[in-house]
Design goal:
Blueprint lengths: L12 E6 L7 H20 L8 E11 L2 E9 L7
Parallel strand pairs: 1-2
Antiparallel strand pairs: 2-3
């Protein structure tokens, strides 16, 4: 939440996060925070958060006791060119 909070405060950008509470080891939390920061920065420069009406949805679910699947979805950004 701390990494994405600065990007979802404007009325023309939506950042939605949902999933169960997950406890991470300190090094895992640091690595995940860096990855989320990079994705959010890219979305704000080039993706969905670079345009009014853009939306980022982050969801996660436990796959097992030691594995979580994270999904990052952007909508409303500029067209993606091959």
């Amino acid at each position: 939440q701390a990494e994405l909070r600065p990007y979802g405060h404007e009325a023309d950008h939506v950042v939605k996060m949902e999933g169960p509470e997950v406890e991470l080891a300190p090094n895992d939390a640091l690595a995940l925070g860096l990855a989320m920061h990079e994705l959010a920065t890219n979305a704000s420069k080039y993706g969905a958060l670079s345009r009014p009406g853009g939306r980022v949805e982050v969801s996660w679910k436990k796959v097992s006791d030691k594995l979580v699947r994270i999904e990052w979805l952007e909508r409303g950004g500029p067209p993606v060119e091959p």
